[in-house]
Design goal:
- InterPro entries: START-like_dom_sf (IPR023393).
- It comes from Sporosarcina soli.
- Keywords: Cell cycle, Cell division.
- This is Cell division protein.
- The structure is a single chain.
- The longest helix is centred in the C-terminal third of the chain and has 36 residues.
- The chain has a single domain, classed as 2-Layer Sandwich (Alpha-D-Glucose-1,6-Bisphosphate, Chain A, domain 4).
- The relative contact order is 0.24.
- About 35% of the residues lie in helices and about 40% in strands.
- α1 packs across α3 and α2 crosses α3.
- It starts with a strand and ends with a helix.
- A hairpin with a 4-residue loop joins β5 and β6.
- It has a seven-stranded antiparallel sheet with strand order 1-7-6-5-4-3-2, covered by helices on one side.
- It has three helices and seven strands; from the N terminus they run βααββββββα.
Amino acid sequence: MPLIVHQEFVRAPIERCFDLARDVDTHTRTTAYTKEKAVGGVTTGFLSVGDVVTWEAVHFGVRQRLTAKITKMDRPYMFEDIMVKGAFHSFTHVHEFIEKENGTLMIDRFCYRSPLGTIGRVADKLFLEWYMKKFIVNRAEALRQIAEEELNN
């Protein structure tokens, strides 16, 4: 199972970074390039433990839906979401936040299992792992920009 780990330093308080990462509306802003939007469950505001959200987005030119559930939360240090329905066989995404002297270190740990057995593992090596890493990095960078711009205004 591929594990993608990405760290992003943000010059903003830990509470702000945590809240931006679990805000449905901010998620939509940071994934606009995939036309991602919440279409079921919690569709606006902050996600909390036990909440379920269904996302609709375009990946690889195909409109897809994925339902995730927030299974753990320790505000403002971490939260975890897991896929309950979607294109993957499974995934777990842990969002961790570490308070630093001049800001916050955000760490994403995304562990997934592709569907279709051997075919899925080949897809991982050919393009899927790269695509998911790019998705996670782009979203983290967008979160950083939003958090830092808010502090400068």
